[in-house]
Amino acid sequence: MRVRVRFTKLGKVRWTSHRDVARMWERAFRRVRVPLAYTGGFSPRPKVSFGLALPTGHESQAEYLDFEVQEGATVEVDGLPARLSPALPTGVDAVAAAAVDERAPSLQEDVTSCTWRIELPVPDGEAGRLVGRVLEAPSIVVTRERKGQKVTDDIRPAILGLSVLGATEAGAELEAEVATRTRGLRPAELVTALHPGLELSRACRINQWIERDGARWEPLTLPLDATGAPHAEPVGTGGRAP
């Protein structure tokens, strides 16, 4: 049995690395006694796989992981988010879970684009001018580092959508949809394309998308009563998991 979980990463926990988030989840699974399947060999590892890595310092309302259940064991999938969230640090909340086809491609293979909300420290009028210039450009060639090597890419094809949502206290908020293939485009790289030297104030991943044969959907949608907002931290000595 293969189960997919959608979760958030909001607030101070955004500074936690992808590797540390994986460790958080392994501890949470142990605490609520989820019967995970393990790999073989001298160093067995739980069969848990994550989607696209979230850059450290960014938030998300749409992160995903898949895990496999031990052969012969069962998991009550509907109640899983409510069991897992209290075992996770504040800001990391399980918001949906569902069984998925064991033959389905991995999340990293399946996701083709992401939607981001990006806040810039410039007035919304200036943000609109920068966005318009990028959308009108036939190509945007940048040099960036990948796996320790400098590579030159035209990132314009990766910008699938870009608009100004409005003014904020810190400046302006943008919504951007960027491709994840063949080379993914990070929010910081997009902001540099808007104006060299400009730094984003905040970035939050809102959606991840799978597109195939003209159709588009999320790896796992939220229940109708879910908001994606973090649960309130319990009052008293109990609190959330460290």
Number of helices: 5
CATH superfamily of the largest domain: Pseudouridine synthase I, catalytic domain, N-terminal subdomain
Q: Using the coordinates shown, work out and report the CATH topology of the largest domain.
A: Alpha-Beta Plaits
- Give the C-alpha Rg: 19 Å
Task: Provide keyphrases for this structure.
alpha+beta; 11 strands; 242 residues; 2 domains; Alpha-Beta Plaits; elongated; 5 helices; nine-stranded mixed sheet
Structure description:
- The chain is of the alpha+beta class and 242 residues long.
- The protein has two domains: 2-109, Pseudouridine synthase I, catalytic domain, N-terminal subdomain (Alpha-Beta Plaits), CATH 3.30.70.580; 112-217, Alpha-Beta Plaits.
- The chain has five helices and eleven strands, in the order βαββαβαβαββββαββ.
- The protein has helices at 18-31, 80-84, 107-110, 124-136, 187-194, and strands at 2-9, 48-50, 59-68, 92-100, 113-120, 141-146, 149-154, 159-167, 172-179, 202-212, 215-217.
Topology, please?
Elements: E1 2-9, H1 18-31, E2 48-50, E3 59-68, H2 80-84, E4 92-100, H3 107-110, E5 113-120, H4 124-136, E6 141-146, E7 149-154, E8 159-167, E9 172-179, H5 187-194, E10 202-212, E11 215-217
Parallel strand pairs: 3-10
Antiparallel strand pairs: 1-3, 1-4, 2-3, 5-9, 5-10, 6-7, 8-9, 10-11
